[in-house]
Amino acid sequence: MKKILSFLTAFIFLCSVVSCDSDKPAENNPPVINKGEVQIVDISKPYKKTEMPFPDKLQGISSIFYSEKSGILHIIGNDSEGNLKVCITDSDFSMYSYADLKLIIDYSKDENIAFAVSENNIFAFISTAEQGEENEEISYTYKLKIYDISGNVRSVCDFVIDDSLLSDCLYKGVRGLSCAGENRLILDIDGTFLLVDTEGNVIEKLTEESADNYMESANGYVRHYIENSGYYGLKSDKTTEKLIDFTDSGLSGISAISPIAKGEFACLSEGKLYKLSERDIAEYSQMQTITLAAASKIDEIQSMIADFNAESNLYQIDLKNYLDSYEYSAEGVENAVNDLEMDIISGKIPDMVYLDTNEIEKLSSKGAFADLYGFMDSDSRYSRDAFLPNYLAAAETDGQLFSIAPVFTIKTIAAKSKHTDIQNWTFEEFKAVYEANSPEMTLFESANNRDAVFGFLSDDCNDFVDYGTHTCSFNSQDFMDILEFSAEFPSVEEYSWETTSCRNDTALISTLYIESFRDINAQEQAIFGDDIAFVGFPSESGNGSVMTLSNQFAIMENSPAKDGAWSFIRTFFRDDRYYGNIRGIPVTENGFEIAMEEALEPPYYIDGTSKQKVPMKETGYDFDTGSQVEVTPMTKAEQEKYEAFVRSITSAISGNYDSSINSIVNEEISRYFAGACSAEECAEIIQNRVSIMLSEQS
User: Fold this and answer.
1) Domain coordinates of the chain in residue numbers?
2) DSSP bridge pairs for 404
3) Between helices 477-486 and 659-673, what is the axis angle to 10°?
4) Which of 335, 338, 510, 637 is most buried as measured by Cβ atoms within 10 A of its Cβ?
């Protein structure tokens, strides 16, 4: 079946040009999203956002409630002192009045507060965790505080909740609160729902489905909720409707939202208060729609999509995240990727994709993607010269660039320079240094058993698989060297699980996972406490240190909106955008220089009240003592050393491993470690099994 599907994919790429707008549903036939047994009807429209004055007596906002009957909007948040207040206004935000709720969260006691608002009351339910004597379980107390609609206290009562009702709860603090009439409420305590009255009595335990039956209908819905990149409403007949697609409306970081009058909404987005009203369809329809397909969590790029849609007068990003139909898990992501590939096979081709590197490589080998060098060569701002040459060398295939990432991270191995000054050592060099320091020193800080050593040196087998050519090299000398070396260590059962440290010279090497120049400096000081050499993973190829690339952007070769897709991708390289929320080292020369200079500045945070920089200490984990050590700012000389190291890396791998390949490898090396076969035989079996799998995918 895989071979048939792969053939069809290639055939379609070669023979078919499909418009991205051709399969859009008619206005009177909204699309239906299937998520498990739940059907979600998408009735969302694009909304424009108008920023409203932020309530001047509030520093932060936690909840927004609206009453259809009174037209009153209650905005609950905290002031600069941490006191909880309610701001009262109308749907036009024409006036603001305030009431002090006489509440303050005591973080030292793990205190949670959940709010609900009815036509006549404001309800605040408070849970407080208290630690008893030594070895005693944490106990919880519960309290309900009721206010009138203006924020004046009506009553306070305590609740006693039987532990048997909360037997399924790992955490017994309140998570949510909903009205079930004026005198009854529904508590959400870690996913357990309780129907209670306003006098401190628990009426009954509910399922989530039965809880919905008790909730009051507002705006035609019994419940609203945020999930992934949208806002949904559940109707009394159990129909679920998608009301707002956040990316279509230029929204991100939504922490509070509520329907208000005239089909409008009030929301808090990225710390700003907005009113949402339906966008002019005539204006919207003149824009070119660019379909972006993803199959993973897209929190890291959500704000960039929203900003682009809000600012662009020419293009509109239409995000289709296939993961929306599944729970977030390894299986869910795999199913999402399969659904995307099936859509491509059937001709539903997006304009661009945001996918894991391995999937990008598989599709690029079939001719799916446009060469991005073509866009760079006609872009005065982001030409090839604007990017790190070593990044382009690592990311390109046969002189073509089919995908791009805004940032990269680094994975390498380091050792103290006094033990070795070799950078990117061969396996024989690595083995010689280890043997010269053994047995006084272990290989690395902990778990020096054969399985751990193999995983450590093979780096999840990424270096032995080429997804672009659908080939592998497990029968190489590099792989057999790792097998034979790992076999010299004790089994998991025999290992004593001692912990050693590079810092005190009881361990030789440590893996470094680097997201910034600060990371290099912090890990050098905390893990080693001395000058280090970036030795890399032992390899004959000399690619011992690697860039790790997780999700990347690619433009479909058959897209009629290539220029618009590139217009969106290039926004991630703007210095004022900080590459979305993606952590890593920038791929542009200018971004790289800025990141280096920022690393020289002592760390700080922005005070929420004064908006000023406040210096802070930087720490790193010391394996020797199991504690945090203070890190001193890097020097100019250290910066130059780190820069030379980063610029020297010319190899890239996926930030994710292939579970099916790793399963094969782990199965066969277990047989080798048990003495059932030689290293050569083990390598050949793995080579054959993985080759067959890759061939089926090709």
Assistant:
1) 47-274, 287-446+501-657, 461-497+659-698
2) 553
3) 50
4) 510
Contact 19, 291 (CB under 8 A): no
Instruction: Kindly report, residue by residue over 209-243, the tens digit of the pLDDT.
Output: 888 888 877 778 888 999 877 899 998 888 899 99
DSSP letter assigned to residue 525: I
CATH topology of domain 47-274: Neuraminidase (2.120.10)
How much is the pTM?
A: 0.72
State the distance between the two ends of the chain, measured CA to CA, in whole angstroms: 12
How far, in Å, CA of 65 to CA of 110, rounded?
25
CATH 3.50.50.60 fits domain 287-446+501-657: no
Q: Which DSSP helix (H) or strand (E) runs through 386?
A: none
CA distance 643 to 652: 17
| Dist. CA 298–CA 323, nearest whole Å | 9
306: nearest Cα among 344, 242, 252, 377:
252
Give tens-digit pLDDT for 70-93: 899 999 999 988 899 999 999 999
- By CB neighbour count within 10 A (0-12 exposed, 13-18 middle, 19+ buried), where does 524 fall? buried
Q: To the nearest 10°, the Cα dihedral for 82, 85, 87, 88? A: 170
Token code pair at residue 536: 């890399």
Between 330-345 and 2-15, two packed helices, what is the crossing angle to 10 degrees?
Answer: 50
- CA pair distance 594, 598, nearest whole angstrom: 6
Q: How far apart are CA 651 and CA 462, in angstroms?
A: 11
Characterize the bridge pairing of strands 315-321 and 288-294: parallel
CA-atom Rg of the chain in angstroms: 29
Token pair of 452, please? Answer: 């751990």
